[in-house]
AraC family transcriptional regulator (Reticulibacter mediterranei), 326 residues
Amino acid sequence: MHTVAILVYDHINPFELAVATEVFSLHRPELGVEWYHTFVCSPEARPVPTRAGFSISTPYTLVDMVQADTIIVPSTTPGNLAVSDQLLEALREVYGRGARLVSFCTGAFVLAAAGLLDGRRAATHWQWTSYLAQQYPRVQVDPAVLFVDDGQVLTSAGTAAAIDLALYIVRKDYGAEIASALARRMVVPPLREGGQAQYIQSSLPDLPEHASFSAVLQWMKEHLQEELPIERLAAEMNMSQRTFARQFRAMTGTTPHQWLLQQRIVQAQCLLERTDETIERIAFLSGFSSASMLRIHFQRLVQTSPQAYRQSFNLKRATSILQSMP
């Protein structure tokens, strides 16, 4: 029987803990397979405070954890992270003997603190990807995906991506049929399309009002449907193309082309969410030369198709579904 240890520690997020217990703790006799043996353990023999204002008590400790085949580390707020050396050493010990390590959301910071993500691809909530990369530069942080399987260590993005990774683990252990049956029981898709890029608020921040580029950035946003070659943009600023490109990157951190592309994708997202316009019309209104070009760039930057994005985020569709419910 495969043993799963779910770790609880100070300021843990109850949602990811609940995902782990829902998937790995509940017995599933209707599936016809021997399910996991799962327990919740904590570093110390005391109630563990959660972020939701209540505490968790468990009779299981790190002594029990080091015997498990899979260890799951739910999330916490990284700024509140206070992980003991004893816990980090226990994680290194179970890793050294070949146990599978799994983090949900910002639980990746615990694995990173133990050095177990060094040289590995890893995921965490999009809001914390930059901070994880900054704090642990040896970690190859992937900000776009829902989860990463790097062999012995698996990491997921934010919140609901814990469900995606948990079902993926079940699929690895028991096969697609069992994982799909479990997903139906949980009333969730067995495999979501795209990555967490589709959930990121991707509009680039505006520059301060006094910045010299504020006016031209606003002008660029208002003319997304037009051709905006760098010579036209430089002329707006009364600069040479080379000077404009250099100062644009210094002020925004990217090139004029990439900035425009990002803004056009943001415009397309807004139209997909709020209108019933065709993909061809949205491509035109967002400044793309064709629907196919919109699809190419949308897939690359948002990690899903425009049509799939509309299915998930269109406000009219969501309202219609709610109104049709009894």
The chain has a mean pLDDT of 84.
